Amino acid sequence: MKKSRIAEFAGRTALALALVSTVAFTGCKDKNTASSKPVLRVGMECAYAPFNWTQTSDKTQDGTPAIPIFSEKYYAYGYDVAVAKMLADHLGMDLEIHKSEWSSIGISMDVGDYDCIIAGMGKTPERELAYSFTTPYYYRDNCIVVKADGAFADVKGLSDMAGKDARVTTQLGTGWIPLLEQIPGGIKSGNFETTSECFMAVSNGVADVAIVDLPTAQSALMTNKGLKIIQLDKADGFVGDGPMVNVCIATRKDDTKLRDKLQKAMDELGWNDKAKMDALMEKSITQQPAAN
């Protein structure tokens, strides 16, 4: 009887171990299968609407799936995310969005946190020394943002600001910073990590003028009616703001293989058509949560 119980116990133990092994093996198999697809790892702020933003919902306003932010419980969407998803799908890759502060977005790519930057980044001569770039995936116009009822609401060109001691600001680490020098008599009131902080500075009276791009300004005015967008007259506007107009994908300087792969996908998708770009941007602006 004793031997029988021992045998029964041993049999049950063996069966239990077999079941555990089977479950463990099956779990590993599923995990490996799910991760066998190549991954396009993309870095962006997730705080630069309408190019990219953070949201709590896994869908946008019209039901479009948002993308989970790597190692976070939130989701990302915006023009940059839509383009990244389009390219990843075309290349047969999964998309992985990595959130980064703008001030360290290049450093994080260089150390391998992700492999490319799709983040509303303008292609400037200085950046070309550090990164490899595709052709533009968006063309944007620059503008200034002022208080709708403020002293600069009727400005048409840069000359209109002469002698008015305008307090000026823009986003840190951008190609807009040199443009601050072109505002006659402009007083630097300090620059900010995000464009949202720039808009807040104008709203709160900390600054009078913020230099940004048009889509971002249009996005901001959806939730801040106290601001006004001014597109300066061409004959009385900024000189040398061209590089910030060309928004390109960046890879590490020596990673021309990925750069060329992404460029090929853009070419095959016909993503050099400004009408397509503008249509997607217009749609992206309507998809952002009110909080952005």
TrEMBL record:
Pfam families: SBP_bac_3 (PF00497). Residues 39-288 form the Solute-binding protein family 3/N-terminal domain. The lineage of its organism: Bacteria, Pseudomonadati, Spirochaetota, Spirochaetia, Spirochaetales. PROSITE patterns: PROKAR_LIPOPROTEIN. It comes from the Bacteria. SMART domains: PBPb. Residues 1-26 form the signal peptide. Keywords: Signal. This is Amino acid ABC transporter substrate-binding protein, PAAT family.
